[in-house]
Amino acid sequence: MHHLSTARGLLDSHDVDAVLITFIPNVRWTTGFTGSNGLVVLRDDGAHLLTDGRYRDQAREEVPGEMEVHIMSNGLDSGLADEGLLAGAKRVAFQSDHVTVDRRTRWGDMFTDVEFAPVSGLLTHAAGVKSRDEIDAIAASQRITDEVFDELLSWLRPGLTEKEVAAEIVYRHMKKGAEKMSFDPIVASGPNGALPHARPTARTLRDGELVVIDMGCFLNGYASDMTRTVAIGEPDDDMEAAYAAVLEAQEAALAEARAGMSASDLDAVARDVLASHGLDDAFSHGLGHGVGLQIHEWPRVSRTSEDDLPAGAVVTIEPGVYLNGRFGIRIEDIIVLEEEGCRNLTGSTKSLTRID
Ligand code: ZN
Ligand code: ZN
How many other C-beta atoms lie within 10 A of the C-beta of residue 150? Predict the structure, then answer.
């Protein structure tokens, strides 16, 4: 999967003679190259990938045929000069949000006649609108996570530690073909659940408590992300009521989500439902985030977001409530924005499951 022609459009839209793409997820998005070291140079008369000797064969196989691959043994930037890739360029756009001050200084020293034009978010919006193949890739990644959750409901039991549950989640994702986890799984029981980004501890799962489980993996480079909250034994009335409120908030957001909507309006749909239950103060983060080659990417779905949600954006919808010292609840699905609504890529059950 590559988006070379879209990326080449940057030459015109930014009115420059060359574009440098240095941020690795964007290198992959542009070229299909999956290596960890790469620099893309786009010119009117050619497209170039610079990488190192580890990727000699792989780079050639992965990038589109019209791209030239340059194997550099002395650092990628040396190739800009040695291979003459910026010859004649007056203005060159670069990813100012992903280039160190040192690197920018080096470029200036190497090319005294070039004007380097800083662009923040050079490919952020373009990469935020997913193609059908990318949506299929995210759905395939999420299917692994759904399977792991479905199995988890049969092996989860009181007495396991949070760490044991997290280890099993990682093992089962890998066994099903995941490349790696998209983030360290969160398994947060009882009061630990009130910390939205808790790390798994040696605490054992206990009767009468809730457990927040947030997990996802990479498959073919694309991330999955899902949260479910389950009850160990019998939840109390407060837990059941809060769970019902979070689920209502999530379902309201799923029902309203559609392309063209502002991200802050979508956030407000869920927040208003929680407010009607007196729980909006306990919802301490944004409603969701984009997912793709990165686990967190544009667009942000939050109160302060100024983004509109384009058709083809893939975002999470993950309202939660966090009651200090008591418990936490979060329910997270991953959706695609469409003209008339949204498509949910998550298949796991959302009714409050009791584990005995
Ligand atoms: Zn998550
Ligand atoms: Zn998430």
Answer: 12
- CA 166 – ligand 1 centroid, Å: 14
Residue whose tokens read 């045929």: 65
Q: What is the pLDDT of residues 18-51, one digit of tens each?
A: 999 999 999 999 999 999 999 999 999 999 999 9
The full set of domain ranges for the chain reads 4-126, 129-355
Q: Which residues surround ligand 1, an ion (CB under 5 A)?
A: 214, 225, 227, 332
- Classified by CATH at the fold level, domain 4-126 comes out as Creatine Amidinohydrolase; Chain A, domain 1 (3.40.350)
Burial class (CB in 10 A: 0-12, 13-18, 19+), 6: middle
Query: What is the pairing mode between strands 180-181 and 217-219?
Result: antiparallel
User: What CATH number is given for 129-355 in this structure?
Assistant: 3.90.230.10
Q: 287, 317 in Cβ contact below 8 A?
A: yes
Question: 174-210 burial string, b = 16+ CB within 10 Å, else e?
Answer: eeeebeebbbebbbbbbbbbbebebebeebbbeeebb
Q: For residues 93 and 77, what is the distance between their CA atoms, to the nearest angstrom?
A: 15
Range 270-294 average pLDDT = 97
Alpha carbon of 211 to ligand 2 centroid (Å)? 16
Identify the burial level of 109 via C-beta atoms within 10 angstroms of its C-beta, where 0-12 means exposed, 13-18 middle and 19 or more buried: exposed
The model's pTM: 0.95
The distance in angstroms from the start CA to the end CA of the chain is: 45
Mean pLDDT of the chain: 97
Ligand 2 geometric centre to CA of 75 (Å): 35
- Report which bound ligand comes closest to the CA of 288: 2
